[in-house]
Structures are given as C-alpha cells and as structure tokens.
Description:
Elements: H1 20-23, H2 28-38, E1 52-57, H3 69-82, E2 86-91, H4 108-121, E3 126-131, H5 136-145, E4 151-155, E5 162-164, E6 167-169, H6 173-183, H7 189-199, H8 211-221, H9 237-256, H10 260-263, H11 266-279, H12 284-296, H13 304-307, H14 326-332, H15 334-342, H16 358-364, E7 387-389, E8 397-400, E9 411-419, H17 422-428, E10 441-444, H18 465-468, E11 476-479, E12 491-496, E13 513-517, E14 522-525, H19 529-534, H20 538-542, H21 549-557
Parallel strand pairs: 1-2, 1-3, 3-4, 9-10, 10-11, 11-12
Antiparallel strand pairs: 5-6, 7-8, 8-12, 9-13, 13-14
Amino acid sequence: MSIQGNSLPDDKQKPTLRSQEAYGKPDKDGFIHRSWMMAQGFPEDVFDGRPVIGICNTWSEITPCNSHLRELAEYVKRGVWEMGGLPLEFPVTSLGETQMRPTAMLFRNLLSMDVEESIRGNPIDGVVLLGGCDKTSPGQLMGAASVDLPTIIVSSGPMLNGKFRGRDIGSGTDVWKFDAEVKAGRMTQAEFSAAEAGMSRSRGVCMTMGSASSFASIAEALGLALPMNGTAPGVIAERQRMAHQAGREIVRLVKDGLKLSHFLTREAFENAIKVHSAIGGSTNTVIHLLAIARRIGVELSLEDFDTLTQDIPLLVNVQPSGQYLMEEFHYSGGVPGVFARLGSRLHQTAPTVSGATIGDIAAAANIWMDDVICTVEKPVKPDAGTIVLKGNIAPNGAIMKPSAASPALLNHTGPALVFEDIEDYKSRIDDPDLDVTKDTVLVLRGCGPMGYPGMPEVGNMALPRKLLAQGISYMVRVSDARMSGTAYGTVVLHVSPEAAAGGPLGLIRTGDMITLNASKRILSVDVSDTVLASRDNPTQMAFKPVSRGYAHLYQTRVEQADVGCDLDFLKGGSGSEVKRESH
C-alpha cells in the first residue's frame, strides 16, 4: 500500500530551523558546534540550513524486539539524505520487556525523560522514533510530546509466525497455555522446552496482538506512523521501505512546520481508542494513551475507553482474542483495512504523517481475507474495547478486556482468596491443600505502580495446579497489576487506587464475597463501608519506598493507573526552546 504526501527539496524555501541556532552562527559558538561535528566526516555544507533530523534509536542486543533497529536506522537516513536533510542518530534507554527486572514498566518514565532531554538539548529540527518493544515506543512518544517537534514513529514490526510441530504458535499467548498444560500434566517438560526456539524465530516484537503490536497499530490511528507500520513483519523488505519513506516524510514535516501537536488532537485519540477496540488491543495501551494525552495537553479520561467503544466490536481475528497472528493481519490489509471497516465511526479528516487523512487511507485500503479483518455486521466477537469498572474495591476505576474474557464469568460472585504480594501467590498457588474452587476470585495486591514498584504484568495469575488438573481453565482474577497484551482470561486489572497507596483493595480479606458485574460496570465486595473502614490495610502499612536512585523517585512521585502512571511532575511539557549556550 502506497500513500505518499512527500515533496521534493525546494532550495527556494529556507524556513527558520531550530538547528540553525547552533549551526548557523558565525561566532565562537557556531564554530564549536560545526567543527566537532565535522570530525565525523560531514562536509561543511550540511550545516548550511538543511533540516537536521534526529533518529532516536532504542536499538539494543538485550532488547530482542529492537535488535534490528540499528540496521533499520540506515534506511531512515537514506530518505532523509534524499530529501536534503541531515540525519543524526542517537541512542536512548532501551527497555527489553522479556529481559528487564523487576518490570520494564518501572523504567518507561525514565526513558521518556531521556528522550525528552535528548530531543530538547540537541540541535535537531525533527525526530524519527525507532522503537518497538512494549514500553519503548510509548516512552519515546511521551518524551517527544513534551518537546513537540515534528515527529514520526517507525516501529520494529512483529516477528514471523511461531511454528511448533506443524502449527502456528503465538508469542506469549501460547506460553501461558503451555504452562497450564504442563501443570495439568498434559504436556511434558521436554515438549515445553522444545517450543522455545520455534516461538521466537525472527527479530521483531510479539506476533500476537500484544502490547507492542497494539501500540504500533494505534500509532497509525494517531496519525503518527505510515500505513502498515503496525503489521509489516520486522524482517521483510516492506519494513525497510517504510523506514526509507519515513525519512522522506520527516523532512517534509519539518519544512511544513507540522509539529507533533498538529496530529495529536482529541480526534486522533478518539480514533486510536476505537481502532484499539476493533483490533483487540492490549490493556497496556490504556495507560500509555492517558499518559501521552497528559503530556500533549489533550483531555482524556479512563471512562473514554469505555464510552467511545460501546458500538465497536472485535474485527481483527488475531490472538489472544482471536485465531490468527500478525502476519495474517498484515497480508489481509493491516490497520488501513480496519479504518475501512470502521468507516464513519472514525474522524475521517484527521491528518497523518503520510500527508493523507485517515479517510484517504481507508479509501485506498484493500481487505483480502474477511475472516481475519471481519465486518462490523459479522465480527469476531460482539464485545471488545475496554470495560471500566467502579465500586467499593476500585473507586477510581479498574479495567477488563472483554474480548479476551470468558463470557460466562463476566457476571460472577464468589469468595475472595487474597494474596498479599506476588511472592505470597507463588508460594501458595500450587499447594494441594489450598482452599480454592472454580468459583473463587483470586485477589492479588501489592503489585501497583508504587507497591511493586512498576506495576508488573502478573495480573493474569496462573490458576491453581489442583484446579488445572481437574480441567478447570477459567477463573475471575482481580489485582492492582497489569497483564501482558498476549494474555487472556477474565482478569480485572489496574485497580485504582492501588493497595499500597491506601486503596480499598488492601482491605479485602479471604472469604469476602466479591461481585463482578461487567454489564453494569461494577466491581464490589459485599462488606459494609463501616466494616471496611475498621480494617487495617496491610499492604499500605508494609509499604516503604526504595531509599535511593530512580526507583525512589518513581515510588514517591508516580501517579495511579487511572491517569497513566506518569511521574506527577512530567505532566505537560517544557517545549523545544533552550535559551542558554554551553560555551
């Protein structure tokens, strides 16, 4: 699919460029800026007023999803040079979701600070964000939003489909399934180990609709990425051509003065939320979009994710909510196909970095497999989007992903089994004497942004071994944690405020009756306000912030999930102006 809005270089147009505040001066300061850059072999004339494009790269060999971004940056540079710009690549913090401990989410805000200060502090006119792994792209965009220069996202793209014993398997989603099968005695440890290499067989992000693929897809809906950014596999030539084209387009955006705020409007966020519903996107996206909106100054609330998606069913038949993987989604028509299916439900005139509108992209889309990108009339599932729950457990809200839940459990009442923290859960969940039935509601606390710290993806608690052996595969689970976008189940997440911050989740006791009523958007415990008020909150009482470093800063300044888990002093931005010289 080719939607291009680039223009050729025009030597007659010499806009005032931010970079010229450094490179355009004839004095000592200009000498220093230019001379030290020329040490890299740049000729003198590249500093004569051409746009300087920063390539913000989260490449790292310890972030497997992003391990090919060093190569992809070269294709971006081709496009920038071609259009008369000067590409300058720089590194920022890289967050490997599968590698970092205690959780990559702890460091998303640190990455955003790194990106913000790198963009603001250096003499660049526009930026291409190279990211992919779950927290890299959101963190990059948060930082870029606080500076507000022309910006394009180029994602690393999903891995090729996983393969195991003659069938496709999906990142993460099948890990949870295989783990349950081993615990139930239906899969051997040797079989479990044999699936490892087959699941991850190329570079790129999870090829299910996990957090990374979800965000890369809604980057298109936000207008910040070129068509097919969310779905083109990371190792095919189309991804490289897209990077080349992005290099062209970022120069055009700089010349036209189209900053990030030109695209990140309320309408863009509404489009993103609706597309997120239609693709069965990760619940992590909710937190990221809330944080980005607060950086760019757009009013967005947790309730918007529920109210805006009431009439948006699940259209994309991709795991964990569906059957296929990201390759099939891509070759079926990708996110532009979803734009076409949603039609007038989207803001058609919203602009994108390609130069085309959302409506233009939808009109040019092709859909090749109706069972992968389904119609609104015959969706994969009628219920999608995000359910926002409230009640005496979650006064500020909690969320569910209905497309990944068990319909029979969406309205359920059962006794709580409380785990004080993740260590308590791990030590007891497989105890054969554990007092638990299929009707029990598993409750995990101490796993919110402050309490863990960083809010890990442990909300989709594995079921007790004794129940798995009985063939029970579904239970209601409630926590102040998150879950991977690759996960599934009737899981209530992001309970806010978290227990460590004094939230009533910390007041629940084992045996209390908990009611989940998804249709009425209620999550409650059958205990009177008087009794709850008389109880201690052991999670809050035990909470003590880490004494030093970034973790201390995070735990003492992080906000709750219902507003995006950003640090409280990072709301808004400082802009791009830097008034003082360093020399």
